[in-house]
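User: structure tokens for this one?
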Amino acid sequence: MIAALAYWVHDLDPVAIHFPESWGLRGVHWYGLSYAAGFMVAAYLLGRWRRAGITPLRDTLDESALITAVMVGVIVGGRLGHVFLYARAEFAADPLMVIRVWQGGMASHGGFLGVLLAGLWFARRAKADFFAVGDLLCALAPAGIFFGRLANFVNGELVGDPSSVAWAVIFPHDGAMPRHPSQLYEAFAEGLLPLVWVLVRYPRRLPPGRLAGEFLLLYSAGRIVCECFRSAEDGYVLGLTAGQFWTLPLAALGLFLVLRSRRPAE
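Assistant:
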């Protein structure tokens, strides 16, 4: 069956804009552009919702401070999460790899932790309700996840398991076997679907923490399901892929936040 179909062979260039060789740099990578696109969408939504008066932000200074904190939290947290959850051996052999972010290697779980710390810092600085800030951050996150997964596909990384489905893709770096384009599955389930959800739910002024809990549950469900189609290159933990295992705390936190938001105010 696999041999009877003509599968698309992945040949996308991870570099979007090439620089002259004399510059000593390859160019602008799609991976970097995906982060820029995510931050741009987040900034647009942040400004739109602040002007509508539905965020805990007071002015444009708060807006700039929060975006800056989130950028630092996502990049630093995502990179350190990748290194310590999935690339400890590589880091031990070459410690400088931690700063080569442009080569790829960002863990969403580490990014979540980085954003959490950014939210804590901002809530304390602005004397705002932390759960309200958390709702806002979770409403801004899906766009970045969506663009990041698309960049994973362009880079030909985080490939899926071998498959004979008609839309399977051959990733030459991983052999001639057609595979699930699991990056696209994740772009939809972890990014696009949660984005539509928060665009509908956030303007409804839910109890503090409710939107964050819903997003974490939706993201966790998407990640756990999509991991079933993704090659377990990072191994297994207690019978689960590493990605599924490290997603369980996010799901537990999401459930806690939803249940907490349902309690009557005292």
